[in-house]
């Protein structure tokens, strides 16, 4: 999993950013080969519009509305929910976690090695220094990239700490049942050497693959922190990325749509971080091949949400970005690869609707692991296996190949759209309803959005909302630029048809009032079924969460001699 990676930065999508150079293939050579050319693109994969709810849905098999819609650093997968890693380990898999956790840390029972992983190494919170490995200060974490020339503290400091000791956001799983213990006092070689996080996770993944007993099945979850702010990349990675993209005209700002100031320097740095992830992807593939494990490997590549336009991420031609209920915030870049992927699916595209929560059932299906039937008081598992939908693509593609014709996945778009989820409750403010093709009628996928639909998160003060008048689209079709920051959809909602209008340029609410009313009723039922996760409801140590400055960069077990007032980590 990658972090805040935009929809546009992928081979084959260059036209949306005025890129005629084709240099994305040079920037991302390994993703191009193993995922774009020899993998299965999942064109309608959805997640939540922010980090924690998406990551928690992946591990729990539950939609965010039925578990957690809060991106707070303290939020967690409830302790009574068995994770995907629990299921895999129970089936005999060796399980390992690397990278950004963001699934709970207030109790030891919420950390990776107590949630089904045999080993772990990474960080707990939303963002950190990619080389310093410190918890990013609130100021550094929240500033837009074009503001980062302001003098701010990069690293968080423990509250009430008279020594002003740096807080490092870095943990290592302990084999003695203590959970994942935070590293303090820079006591780890990666911190001391200022090792880039992508390099660190790549090095560790390659080592785990090399040490693995190949007679056992293997589940490795690598959650890269790139391309999340604060941006940074080693000099060699920046130079390689600039060389790969030498023919791209950054001066044209083709990735920007007018929502935020264009900053070519920050865009280059964002792309360099993506290049760094790609290099580690290539190393992992080669390590699997060296161990003769590639032929039985499935490789999943996905972003947790859309790119952040304010940080030079882009999701064009989709509207919106991270924190937005528009497609650019929730329709995420996702592909499936690996030697075990059927040959007929390599180079194909699936248009079936799916959610990040569906990886729980899909990977369990492939591994032959039954889904848990006991919910232990939690919301039922809502995950749906998409493996049958993808296998259904094989027959028509195989037939076209046998007939001597090149596969054309656009021919299957109507049929394929009906093979996945036909209803997808994305959040308390957005829902998709898929109507299969029937007779001469093509398939339709209607999306309802209520409230303000903006490029990012709407301002808290309604007087500051830059909203288009009712009925006027945000996007100027002639210029490709935005007329305003938000759509004012109200409580009744805006209505879009995603198959014909993926950019959500045309609100059909007035033309199709019956469809809007039907979806609005479905959304109301979804809202009534919403669940508040356990840390918000007071089961977890909410006082500890509050005392850590609203979870913006400190931990509960920082050494007592630093004079802070935070309670110790609960060993339960």
Question: Strands, helices and their partners?
Answer:
Blueprint lengths: L23 H4 L1 H9 L2 E3 L2 E2 L4 H10 L23 H7 L3 E7 L18 E5 L14 H5 L28 E3 L6 E3 L6 H4 L4 H15 L6 E6 L11 H10 L19 H27 L8 E4 L24 H4 L3 E4 L10 E3 L3 E2 L3 H9 L19 H5 L2 H9 L10 H5 L5 E5 L2 E6 L8 E6 L2 E3 L12 E2 L17 E3 L5 E4 L15 H16 L13 H6 L25
Parallel strand pairs: 1-10, 2-11, 3-4, 3-7, 16-17
Antiparallel strand pairs: 1-9, 4-5, 5-6, 8-9, 12-13, 13-14, 14-18, 15-17
Helix pairs in contact: 7-9, 8-9
Question: What spatial order of strands do you see in the largest sheet?
Answer: 6-5-4-3-7
Oligomeric state: single chain
Runs in which pLDDT lies below 50 for 5 or more consecutive residues are: 139-152, 536-572
Number of domains: 2
What kind of sheet is the major sheet? 5 strands, mixed
What gross morphology would you assign? globular
Named at the architecture level, the CATH assignment of the largest domain is 3-Layer(aba) Sandwich
State the helicity in percent bands: 25-40%
At the first level of CATH, what is the class of the largest domain?
Alpha Beta
CATH superfamily of the largest domain: Alkaline Phosphatase, subunit A
Mean pLDDT across the residues is 85
CA-CA gap between termini: 29 Å
Radius of gyration equals 23 Å
Number of strands: 18
What is the name of the CATH topology of the largest domain?
Answer: Alkaline Phosphatase, subunit A
Structural class: alpha/beta
Q: How large is the share of residues in beta strands?
A: 5-15%
> Helix segment count?
16
């Amino acid at each position: 999993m990658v972090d805040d990676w935009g929809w546009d930065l992928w081979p084959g999508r260059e036209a949306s950013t005025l890129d005629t150079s084709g240099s994305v293939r040079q920037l991302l050579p390994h993703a191009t080969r193993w995922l774009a050319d020899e993998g299965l693109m999942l064109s309608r994969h959805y997640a939540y519009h922010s980090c924690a709810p998406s990551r928690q849905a992946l591990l729990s098999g539950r939609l965010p509305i039925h578990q957690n819609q809060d991106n707070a650093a303290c939020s967690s997968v409830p302790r009574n929910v068995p994770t995907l890693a629990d299921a895999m380990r129970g089936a005999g898999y060796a399980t390992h976690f690397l990278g950004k956790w963001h699934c709970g840390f207030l109790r030891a029972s919420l950390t990776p090695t107590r949630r089904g992983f045999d080993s772990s190494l990474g960080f707990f919170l939303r963002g950190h220094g990619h080389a310093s490995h410190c918890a990013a200060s609130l100021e550094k974490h929240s500033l837009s990239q074009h503001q980062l020339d302001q003098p701010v503290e990069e690293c968080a400091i423990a509250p009430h700490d008279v020594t002003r000791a740096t807080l490092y956001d870095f943990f290592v799983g302990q084999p003695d049942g203590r959970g994942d213990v935070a590293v303090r006092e820079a006591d780890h070689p990666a911190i001391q050497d200022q090792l880039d996080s992508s390099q660190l996770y790549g090095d560790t993944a390659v080592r785990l693959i090399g040490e693995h007993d190949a007679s056992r099945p293997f589940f490795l979850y690598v959650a890269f922190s790139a391309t999340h702010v604060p941006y940074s990349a080693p000099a060699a990675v920046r130079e390689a990325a600039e060389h790969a993209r030498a023919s791209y005209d950054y001066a044209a700002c083709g990735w920007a749509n007018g929502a935020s100031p264009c900053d070519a320097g920050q865009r280059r740095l964002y792309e360099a971080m993506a290049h760094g992830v790609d290099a580690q992807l290539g190393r992992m593939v080669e390590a699997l091949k060296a161990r003769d494990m590639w032929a039985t490997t499935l490789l999943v590549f996905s972003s947790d949400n859309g790119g952040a336009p304010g940080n030079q991420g882009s999701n064009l031609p989709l509207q919106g970005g991270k924190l937005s209920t528009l497609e650019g915030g929730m329709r995420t870049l996702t592909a499936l690869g690996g030697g075990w992927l059927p040959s007929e699916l390599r180079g194909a595209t699936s248009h079936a609707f799916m959610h990040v929560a569906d990886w729980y059932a899909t990977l369990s299906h492939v591994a032959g692991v039954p889904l848990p039937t006991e919910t232990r008081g939690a919301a039922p598992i809502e995950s749906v296996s998409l493996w049958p939908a993808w296998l259904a693509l094989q027959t028509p593609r195989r037939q076209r190949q046998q007939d001597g014709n090149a596969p054309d996945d656009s021919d299957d778009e109507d049929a394929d759209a009906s093979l996945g989820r036909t209803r997808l409750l994305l959040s308390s403010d957005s829902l998709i309803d898929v109507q299969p093709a029937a007779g001469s009628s093509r398939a339709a996928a209607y999306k309802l959005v209520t409230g303000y639909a903006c490029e990012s998160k709407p301002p808290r003060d309604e007087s500051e909302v830059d909203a288009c008048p009712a009925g006027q689209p945000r996007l100027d079709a002639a210029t490709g630029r935005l007329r305003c920051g938000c759509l004012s959809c109200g409580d009744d909602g805006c209505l879009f048809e995603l198959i014909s209008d993926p950019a959500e340029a045309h609100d059909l609410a007035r033309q199709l009032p019956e469809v809007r009313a039907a979806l609005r009723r479905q959304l109301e039922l979804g809202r009534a079924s919403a669940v508040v996760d356990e840390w918000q409801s007071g089961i977890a140590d909410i006082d500890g969460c509050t005392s850590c400055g609203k979870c913006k960069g400190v931990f509960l077990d920082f050494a007592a001699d630093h004079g802070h007032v935070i309670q110790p980590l609960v060993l339960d």
